[in-house]
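hey
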């Protein structure tokens, strides 16, 4: 329990990160697949409930200067941390305030997008009801709400671990002691059930393994808070329905697809549970799912779940692939395997897809409009004198089917707006001002794809120079000064060699910043 007037998040703030899947760019793209035209992003209004210190909202505000962002959180310590970042970046389109969800002014809407990541399961019933009420009353008619929650059945086992950790840790008043004691108790559980060699042991050990990789603030708030109420997906959908809201999709599109199971399981799923809610609920049991990220829209919105190839028109695609063959020929229809960043594979013999993969790799991390990918792929195949791939419509349908498979496997992302960053450094290179600010104290920075990315100490120092005031030569000069100072201490190469090394290092750093989507 926190001191009076303070919340536990004031005592131990949450690490506030960007979640790409909550970005309106991704929400609008996903909505389009289901035939829903979400509000355009340029001038949209976004509300985030439980925004912590704005790690998710502030980077959105930075890349969408014409849009308006409102974030609220109960913890004034976290909000003040966020306000300091807003002030340092001079952002005028984001408002953060220390307010409870239960106190939101009903006149503050409507909002085109409402986001609540990691909040619903961690607040009491009346606050949960209020969250759905806010979505019902303050979401624009064509708006999209994103609410994540802990779900059953996966949280049954995790809940056992949580219960033991809490039972033990509640004897200690100080948050750090609680975390330490709770971790110790979890380790004790893992090592002690081992001897029994039961199914229970396997489940519990896997849970504790996951827990070991988590940061202290996460352990405190996920495992030791008073409230953490997981629920079944169908229960959540029913609650949303009571507020005039319907389920649109899961932010992790692949989890909605029965086709991601073995063919016989997928067929059975369609037979057993023909409608989307039942099917997804049964799949949660098959996966022992623990977490969901639901997109909701008003009941009045017409959702069309038959995803046709034309739904990709108007959307951008980004992806990076590795070819699992020493060489391949885009003119041949031999099947080739491509691996995406998450490790999933696409096997295809389609020439248009092979060409598209090369195009997406060339543009990565930027997105390319789907129509452009089709056009460029056709041109590439023509230039290589490849056999015909059919009419424009046939080629587009083939590529769309493969890209949707890739999207379902998390190998590509879909975007409703063009990328707001560059992959070619300017004459006077500029890196994201947020990343530059973060790099002063941290090597995990937020990129312009709305993702956290890890850089090393050298890059963290260098990125701070990229504020648009220095040419590449100026940057090399500063880097040379740093290198010379280091070399003096370590006994180093000749000045000429050093200059060459620094030049190469700066060039490599700029390449890395470009690939990490950190350059404006
Ligand atoms: C688990 S954290 C999640 C933070 C962030 N959304 C994320 O996913 O990283 C839950 C957040 O909800 C906030 N919170 C809890 N109850 C609240 C309430 N009644 N009103 C506003 N914020 C609340 C907490 O202060 C905390 O920052």
């Amino acid at each position: 329990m926190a001191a009076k007037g303070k919340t536990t998040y004031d005592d131990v703030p949450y690490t506030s990160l960007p979640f790409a899947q909550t970005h309106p760019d991704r929400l609008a793209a996903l909505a389009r697949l289901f035939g829903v035209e979400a509000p355009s992003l340029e001038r949209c209004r976004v509300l985030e409930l439980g925004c912590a210190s704005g790690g998710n909202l502030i980077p959105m505000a930075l890349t969408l200067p014409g849009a308006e962002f409102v974030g609220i959180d109960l913890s004034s310590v976290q909000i003040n941390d966020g306000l300091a970042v807003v002030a340092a970046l001079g952002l005028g389109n984001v408002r953060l305030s220390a307010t409870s969800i239960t106190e939101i002014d009903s006149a503050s809407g409507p909002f085109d997008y409402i986001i609540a990541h990691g909040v619903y399961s961690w607040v009491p019933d009346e606050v949960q009801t209020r969250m759905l009420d806010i979505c019902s009353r303050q979401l624009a008619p064509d708006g999209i709400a994103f609410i994540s929650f802990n779900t059953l059945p996966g949280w049954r086992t995790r809940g056992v671990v949580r219960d033991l950790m809490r039972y033990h840790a509640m004897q200690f008043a100080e948050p750090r002691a609680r975390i330490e004691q709770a971790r110790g108790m979890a380790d004790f559980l893992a090592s002690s059930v081992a001897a029994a060699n039961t199914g229970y042991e396997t489940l519990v050990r896997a849970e504790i393994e996951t827990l070991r990789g988590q940061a202290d603030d996460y352990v405190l708030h996920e495992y030791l808070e008073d409230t953490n109420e997981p629920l079944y997906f169908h229960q959540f959908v029913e609650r949303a329905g009571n507020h005039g809201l319907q389920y649109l999709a899961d932010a992790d599109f692949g989890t909605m697809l029965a086709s991601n199971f073995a063919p016989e399981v997928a067929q059975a799923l369609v037979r057993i549970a023909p409608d989307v809610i039942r099917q997804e609920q049964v799949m949660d049991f098959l996966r022992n799912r623990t977490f969901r990220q639901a997109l909701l829209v008003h009941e009045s919105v017409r959702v069309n779940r038959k995803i046709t190839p034309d739904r990709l028109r108007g959307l951008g695609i980004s992806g990076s692939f590795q070819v699992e063959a020493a060489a391949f020929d885009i003119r041949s229809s031999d099947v080739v395997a491509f691996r995406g960043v998450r490790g999933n594979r696409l096997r295809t013999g389609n020439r248009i897809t092979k060409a598209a993969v090369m195009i997406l790799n060339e543009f990565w991390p930027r997105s390319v409009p789907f129509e452009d990918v089709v056009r460029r792929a056709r041109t590439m195949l023509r230039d290589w004198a490849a056999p015909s791939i059919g009419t424009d419509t046939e080629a587009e349908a083939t590529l769309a089917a493969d890209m949707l498979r890739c999207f379902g496997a998390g190998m590509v992302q879909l975007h409703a707006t063009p990328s707001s960053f560059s992959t070619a450094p300017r004459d006077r290179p500029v890196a994201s001002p947020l990343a530059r600010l973060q790099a002063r104290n941290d090597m995990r920075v937020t990129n312009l794809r709305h993702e956290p990315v890890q850089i090393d100490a050298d890059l963290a120092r260098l990125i701070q120079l990229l504020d648009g005031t220095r040419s590449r030569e100026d940057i090399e000069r500063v880097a040379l000064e740093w290198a010379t100072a280091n070399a003096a201490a370590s006994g180093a190469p000749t000045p000429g060699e050093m200059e060459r090394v620094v030049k190469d290092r700066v060039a490599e750093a700029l390449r890395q910043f470009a690939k990490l989507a950190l350059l404006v």
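The first helix runs from residue 8 to 11. Residues 7, 9, 14, 16, 50-52, 72-75, 78, 100-102, 117-119, 122-123, 127, 221 surround S-adenosylmethionine (CB under 6 Å).
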